[in-house]
């Protein structure tokens, strides 16, 4: 800690720091400050503090339609990760070997150099408190953490808050195909779970699995659905779910009649009023206390119930989160000969490469050489 004293006081109070960067109302004052600097032909970012530049980075408007800007969830995730980064530097500076020669303008960010980011990345992977307590981060988690911090420092250099491109000091932390967790889930496994929960008269888990698998929606999307999200399709008939996904992007998901029945069954089992009798802004799905699900709670609930099912019936240890059923949607769609581009759009992915990751093993099996073998070349054994 002694090596990096002299930075602005907010950085030393990490809880205060976190609260300040999450204060969205500060953005309007910062915009006025930048406007004034622009009028004077100056770089207004040079007068920002670390708190202000991070607040601006998180909350700045890019689109005329604010709904297209970063979602609250993304802002919270970025803010949490960057606050943790600051906390680590301040609390474990000696362990990380932050040999900062001198503090520039009371700013931690301006005082860092490439070697500091590289050393932080090495410490995070090998010696951080999480690693000592729970073991190494997954490659995907390290990649996400690196991406968030690297993007932030690239932005600081772009706007002139820092003078050197220190983000180039990071190691590449990309995830190899073999490092990705296997989340493949086929129709047989999904049907086994649905049949089992049906036999156990567990309509809540039956409905959750049914809805997640047939819609491909994300955990967070399921949790934020409201009664008004369920809409009658005036053109094609039936019903749709109007979902707000990542980046506040909306998509309309057609529902099969039996899936709509599962929605009604879920609400009946929870003792909720019918959709017609509910307020439009009421949550579509709730916990047994009548509250909208939180993503972390839904994940824990689903994981626990499925684990108990497999242990009781098969004596197997299984850990399946809601995200596995999103993969199941992609896999089952592909096995039904759905075009990859249509699967991408149905899932709300921005890049085809993301969808292809979901389907990597399915593609390998589809394109295996054995499928080209002809019976006349290998007789009765094929």
Provide an overview of this structure:
- The structure is a single chain.
- It contains 20 helices and 3 strands.
- It starts with 8 loop residues before the first helix and ends with a helix.
- The longest helix is centred in the N-terminal third of the chain and has 20 residues, at 72-91.
- It has 2 domains: 2-179, no CATH class; 187-366, Orthogonal Bundle (hpI Integrase, Chain A), CATH 1.10.443.
- With 382 residues, it is mainly alpha-helical.
- Helix 11 (187-199) packs antiparallel against helix 12 (203-215).
Structural class: mainly alpha
CATH level 4 superfamily of the largest domain: Intergrase catalytic core
Number of domains: 2
CATH class term of the largest domain: Mainly Alpha
Q: What's the total number of strands?
A: 3
- Spatial ordering of strands, largest sheet: 1-2-3
| Proportion in β-strands | under 5%
Order of SSEs, N→C?
Answer: HHHHHHHHHHHHHEEEHHHHHHH
| CATH topology label of the largest domain | hpI Integrase, Chain A
The pLDDT mean sits at 88
In CATH terms, what is the architecture of the largest domain?
Answer: Orthogonal Bundle
Task: Summarize this structure briefly.
By secondary structure, the chain is mainly α. 54% of the residues lie in helices and 4% in strands.
Which keywords apply here?
382 residues; mainly alpha; hpI Integrase, Chain A; 2 domains; 20 helices; globular
């Amino acid at each position: 800690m002694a090596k990096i004293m002299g930075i602005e006081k907010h950085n030393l109070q990490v809880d205060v720091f976190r609260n300040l960067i999450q204060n969205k109302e500060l953005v309007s004052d910062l915009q006025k400050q930048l406007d004034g600097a622009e009028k004077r032909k100056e770089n207004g970012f040079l007068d920002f503090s670390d708190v202000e530049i991070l607040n601006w980075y998180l909350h700045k408007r890019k689109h005329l339609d604010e709904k297209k800007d970063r979602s609250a969830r993304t802002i919270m995730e970025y803010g949490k990760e960057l606050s943790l980064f600051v906390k680590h530097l301040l609390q474990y500076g000696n362990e990380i070997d932050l040999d900062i020669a001198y503090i520039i303008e009371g700013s931690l960010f301006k005082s860092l150099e490439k070697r500091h980011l590289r050393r932080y990345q090495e410490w995070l992977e090998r010696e951080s408190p999480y690693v000592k307590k729970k073991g190494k981060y997954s490659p995907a988690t390290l990649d996400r953490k690196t991406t968030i911090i690297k993007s932030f420092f690239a932005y600081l250099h772009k706007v002139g808050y820092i003078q050197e491109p220190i983000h180039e000091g990071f190691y590449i932390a990309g995830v190899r195909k073999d490092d990705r967790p296997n989340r493949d889930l086929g129709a047989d496994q999904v049907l086994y779970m649905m049949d089992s929960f049906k036999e156990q008269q567990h309509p809540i888990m039956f409905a959750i699995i049914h809805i997640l698998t047939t819609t491909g929606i994300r955990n967070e999307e399921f949790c934020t659905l409201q009664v008004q999200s369920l809409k009658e399709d005036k053109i094609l008939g039936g019903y749709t779910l109007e979902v707000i996904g990542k980046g506040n992007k909306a998509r309309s998901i057609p529902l099969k009649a039996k899936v709509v029945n599962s929605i009604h069954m879920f609400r009946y089992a929870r003792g909720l009023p019918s959709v017609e009798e509910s307020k439009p802004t009421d949550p579509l799905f709730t916990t047994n206390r009548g509250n909208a699900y939180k993503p972390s709670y839904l994940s824990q609930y689903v994981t626990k119930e499925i684990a108990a099912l497999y242990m009781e019936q098969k004596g197997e240890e299984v850990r399946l989160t809601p995200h596995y059923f999103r993969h199941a949607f992609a896999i089952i769609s592909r096995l039904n000969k759905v075009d990859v581009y249509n699967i991408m759009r149905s899932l709300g992915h921005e890049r085809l490469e993301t969808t292809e990751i979901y389907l990597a093993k399915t593609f390998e099996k589809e394109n295996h050489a054995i499928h080209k073998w002809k019976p006349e070349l290998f007789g009765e054994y094929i």
